[in-house]
Known about the structure:
The protein is an alpha+beta fold. Helix content is 30%, strand content 24%.
Amino acid sequence: MPPSAPERLTIPMLQLLDNITHKDLRVITERGAAWGDDVMSAPVTPDEFRSLQADYPILFQPDGSGSFLPVALFGLEQGDNLFLSDNGWEAEYLPLSMQRMPFSIGIAGEELRIMVDMDSPRISRGAEGEALFLPQGGLTDHLEQVNSVLRTLHEGLQALPEFVQALTAHELLESFVLDVERPDGSHGRLEGFYMINEERLAALSADTIGLLHQADYLQPIYMAIASLSNLTKLIRRHLSRTA
Length: 243
């Protein structure tokens, strides 16, 4: 398990989605490695933490600008998603950043627009997949849902910097290293991630805790701490597949 790094650094071929150019476009909604789901983590927003903490460890990864990005951890190695099986994705909640694929948000002036990655393996021009536009040009229910996911994700990402700033201002993030011994005696090492330090949180003054609560940061902080119990479950998944 080498030091983590952002996955899939290739630049997507984004196009502004419209009902003329993409009138016959369909999107495959199945889950699996063939559709680009073979990633070890995905960005998440604090509003998702309550849903995420039941299945995934919520960690923080340096974003290259001196700040941090919260992520849901799916595996212990690059390109390894331990929640994928022959039956699809084995978890109750799918992070918004995975749900949105192959779409993203573009901004034209003050208007948010839907962009589509035409290089995505989810793109289909045949009969397979969900249609995006009705024959008359209107939006299908699927595209309406995509629009809702993108809007929610955008709002969460807009609020993220202040949340992370609060964590770093109170020195609540600490790096950690996870060593895993496999059945064959080999060792794996997960590093490059940060977690919330529960002891430092407990040592904060009542006034500081109150300010975090007023900012609606306290709940996601506790959800992130609770999610760390999923690291043990993730290790079990990893060991069961390497046995």
